[in-house]
Design brief:
Number of domains: 1
Pfam family, one: TauE
Number of helices: 11
Subcellular location: Cell membrane; Membrane
Radius of gyration: 18 Å
Family: Belongs to the 4-toluene sulfonate uptake permease (TSUP) (TC 2.A.102) family.
Low-confidence stretches: none
Keywords: Cell membrane, Membrane, Transmembrane, Transmembrane helix
Number of strands: 0
Structural class: mainly alpha
Order of helices and strands: HHHHHHHHHHH
InterPro entries: TM_pro_TauE-like, TSUP/Inactive_protease-like
Length: 286
């Protein structure tokens, strides 16, 4: 029972973060679940199966608050679904003990990207401008982000959101809402890929339902928060958390000398605190 409550809390926090930032549900929940020693393919399949429900709730909430660009949404869905299905089939055929460290390394890099992206590059000035995503850009973006999402347990948001935000004058809330809503199709495709490759027997439905419940509760709250909270600080907090957690997994995997472990953690924590302080000060000046 205690573990189910933990899973529900993980689902709640992950969806709260994802719905506010347009990224990090998969990265956050996968990172936390991997620390419990669960096989990577089982983790990713459980996360994506839970996401089928949580992303649906999130998409409905974002539509209700007017946070979705429907043209960009429609153009992302098909390539993203294809990339996600292929990525799920690929991961399902890789041994868990072999894939684990590489997935943690991938998540570590995504965490660093999220941190630096929100620390230095997010613009506070936004306009209610259409995303205007062309098919030429949507196809490679969807394929790459979908594949990364299925193989790493996260990647759709961390890849798609910054790419869409890179265009000057685009509304951040429209990007977040569109990416979050399109993730429903990506979650469905990844789940189908895992079920085809792994079968239903590998799914722990209690874990999945616990993640779903937490995520569904958080979805409308996050859709509302995206209109209220500054993304800078939340992005730095999430990025640093993901980096710290995955460094722990990698240090254990690589059997780093215990003498160096406190020093490594100290450097990461100091850098994280400085990043948070810098983000707060920067926001106050704007």
């Amino acid at each position: 029972m205690c573990k189910l409550i933990i899973f529900a809390i993980i689902g709640f926090l992950a969806q709260l973060i994802d719905g506010s930032l347009g990224m990090a549900y998969g990265v956050t929940s996968t990172t936390l679940l991997l620390t419990l020693g669960i096989a990577p393919a089982i983790v990713s399949s459980s996360v994506h199966l839970a996401e089928v429900v949580t992303t649906a709730a999130s998409g409905i909430s974002h539509m209700k608050f007017g946070n979705v660009d429907r043209q960009a949404l429609n153009r992302l869905i098909i390539p993203g679904s294809i990339g996600s299905f292929v990525g799920a089939c690929f991961l399902s055929n890789v041994p868990g003990n072999l894939a684990g460290p590489y997935i943690s390394l991938f998540l570590l890099l995504l965490g660093m990207y999220i941190l630096f992206r929100f620390l230095f590059r997010i613009k506070s000035e936004t306009k209610e401008k259409s995303i205007e995503l062309t098919r030429k850009k949507a196809i490679p973006l969807g394929l790459i982000a979908g594949f990364a999402d299925a193989t790493g347990g996260g990647g759709w948001g961390p890849i798609a959101t910054p790419v869409l935000l890179s265009k000057q004058g685009i509304s951040a809330r429209k990007v977040v809402g569109t990416v979050d809503t399109s993730e429903f199709a990506i979650a469905v495709s990844a789940t189908l890929g895992f079920l085809v490759s792994l079968g239903w027997d590998e799914v722990n439905w209690l874990w999945v339902f616990a993640l779903m419940i937490g995520g569904v509760i958080a979805a409308p709250i996050a859709a509302w928060l995206v209109r209220k909270l500054p993304a800078h600080l939340l992005g730095v907090l999430v990025g640093g958390f993901i980096v710290l957690t995955n460094v722990r997994i990698l240090l254990n995997t690589w059997a780093v000398d215990i003498v160096w472990v406190p020093f490594i953690y100290g450097v990461i924590l100091l850098g994280w605190i400085l990043a948070i302080t810098y983000s707060i000060k920067t926001n106050k000046r704007k």
